[in-house]
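Possible regression after last week's pipeline update?

I re-ran a chain I had predicted before the update to compare outputs. Posting the input and the new output here so someone can diff against the archived version. Not blocking, just want to make sure nothing changed silently.
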Amino acid sequence: MTQLTPVRRASGHRPPLMNTALTLAANGVPVLPLRAGKVPFGNCPTCAGNVCGGRPNMKAPGPCCCPGVCHAWAAATTDPAVIVSPPWLAAWDRAVCVGYHPGGAGLTVVDLDDADAIAWARTALPATRTVETTRGQHWIYRGAMTSRNAVRPGVDVKSLMGYARWLACGTGAMAPLPDAVRALAVKEPPTPRRAPQSLTAPLTGHRGECPHRTPAYLERGIAMAVQRITDARAAVHATVYRTFLAVLSTHGRCGCLTESHVARLFAAAQAKGESPRHCADAWANALTALGL
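New output (post-update):
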């Protein structure tokens, strides 16, 4: 997606958005038309209520043989014959923008809706390809993952089983999908029924050569994690868990985390209303999720 190779226009009626879609498709990006509100076109009457069985994913479509623009993100295609077919032509005439399926192109879009979300991303995520949007930015990473909306205030993750609005190629080099973004979409597992754990150094037996260049790197990471918890305005429990997961994914295997670091994270969580039990459970669940 550094640059797109345009396709030659054919004669006859062709809505402008269709030309954009064909160019994207020729470059391996699955596309679909989006109507007013930036939403997909509704399923046809035959497919209403998913009675046709739907299309579970791009690589293995389900039993539905509908030629129309059905099934939202799963309708996205790189096939030019489909894009210019009569049902799609009618949709392009009514479309307001081109959508694309990031996961189908091996990409993940972190959708940042406002200035606060952008400020958070600049401290919490590695720099990557950036596309300006109406209200914020799309940060695009190379690699696919599970999509999830509202992973934190003003932030959505769009990749597999999702779609994003095509705006431009963007600027900057595209970075590989980092663990910090993958952690955003991880749902906290159910809390196991067990006695609360005491607060101890969490990773005895995992100590090894620390890959971090300076102690300041760890200190900055803990400070950012504490700030992220402190800034949470909603879904505090989920934010605490995802923050613990992000800290452990970066610093959990070298053994550099101490009781002092963990205590600072727990204190920040408890200041937002989390109980000591919830903190201990979230920490234990994050360790389990990462195989630590």
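Follow-up from reviewer: compared with the archived run. Residues 57-61, 193-208 have pLDDT under 50 and may be disordered. Marking as no regression found.
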